[in-house]
Amino acid sequence: MATQVQSPMSWRDSYRGMSSDNIKGLVLALSSSLFIGASFIVKKKGLKKAGASGIRAGVGGYSYLYEPLWWVGMITMIVGEVANFAAYAFAPAILVTPLGALSIIISAVLAHIILREKLHIFGILGCALCVVGSTTIVLHAPQEREIESVTEVWALAMEPGFLFYAALVITAVFILIFHFIPQYGQTHIMVYIGVCSLVGSLSVMSVKALGIALKLTLSGMNQLVYPQTWVFTLVVITCVLTQMNYLNKALDTFNTAVVSPIYYVMFTSLTILASVIMFKDWDRQSPTQVITEMCGFVTILGGTFLLHRTKDMTDGLTTSMSSLRLSKHAEEDGMDGAEGIPLRRQDSSRS
Q1: Could you list the residue ranges that cross the membrane (predicted)?
Q2: Among candidates 264, 323, 275, 322, which has minimal Cα distance to 297?
């Protein structure tokens, strides 16, 4: 009696591939990162020009509003944000948000070329890790949740878990703005970026809801008649204006190559957390997929950490080389660099 031998399943058979909506979201997210990464540099140039002739944004000035170069960067960022907005309408946040790593790479490289902000060799390695981590998440991202009305999104937002998260975020933002920013805004980078990231996690959830509403409206199911659509619109406008204000302060006060990766890590982490709570992305995935996504995200964190350390390592090397040159010149001049005492006088006193 002949036995039927089953052929081993190939990877093509086991891999289901990405849905058409996920592919659209992927393309839009990549385009968004290109525009946003370049906008960081253009806006930084505009902020520098505005600060040279007026009050810097980092100390509360708004002279950058009169600088055309800043508006070019702002328009570039708006184009990127529009593409990002559309991406959230087609793909889950856990797929779209980590692709912001590409904007880190672009801004770091352009900052090295245009702004002369040093990019260490380990910074290049960090960029590569960001790409690897993003690719891992893209290949294992969940399919988009099927939603047929904006009221479904509103019901998800009104669940106790997400309401508790939103209350924590709003409380933390008010504490940072009214207590920590007046004292530590100019010295601690995490204060400004903390506000941007916390508010950003709420704005992404509202952007996704609004994007779904517009997509359904264009497909023939009018969602503009629901008041929930306009509530989400109001939340988006409020959050985006808050993010823009404090991101400008962070860019004007601190190094761009440091602001971009730290902002990305915090923003992405909080957005994924908010999406998991609100849209329950991981409920539609196996434990293996979830663990793989987390490994990809940790890889991205490692890349952004290396990008952050690039500035410190470069500055440290420069400082140590400068001190070495000063010490060498001091010895040649017969002076002790530490105490300013002539070496020859010390020798004569010992004899």
Answers
A1: 23-42, 63-83, 89-115, 122-142, 162-182, 189-210, 230-247, 254-278, 290-307
A2: 264
User: Does residue 194 belong to any structural domain of this protein?
Assistant: yes
- pLDDT tens sequence across 242-261: 998 998 888 888 877 678 77
Domain contains 4: no
- Amino acid at site 321: M
Residue 342 Cα distances to 324, 328, 331, 336, angstroms: 18, 14, 9, 6
In a domain, 288, yes or no: yes
When divided into structural domains, the chain yields a total of: 1
Instruction: Give the domain extent around 59.
Output: 18-316
pLDDT > 70 fraction of the chain, expressed in percent and rounded: 79
CA 133 → CA 207, 216, 223, 266, distances in Å? 24, 32, 36, 16
Task: Please indicate, yes or no, if residue 332 is contained in any of the structural domains.
Answer: no
DSSP states of 87-143? HHHHS-HHHHGGGGHHHHHHHHHHHHHTS-----HHHHHHHHHHHHHHHHHHHTPPP
- Type of residue numbered 258: V
Q: Determine the 3-state secondary structure of 337 from DSSP.
A: coil
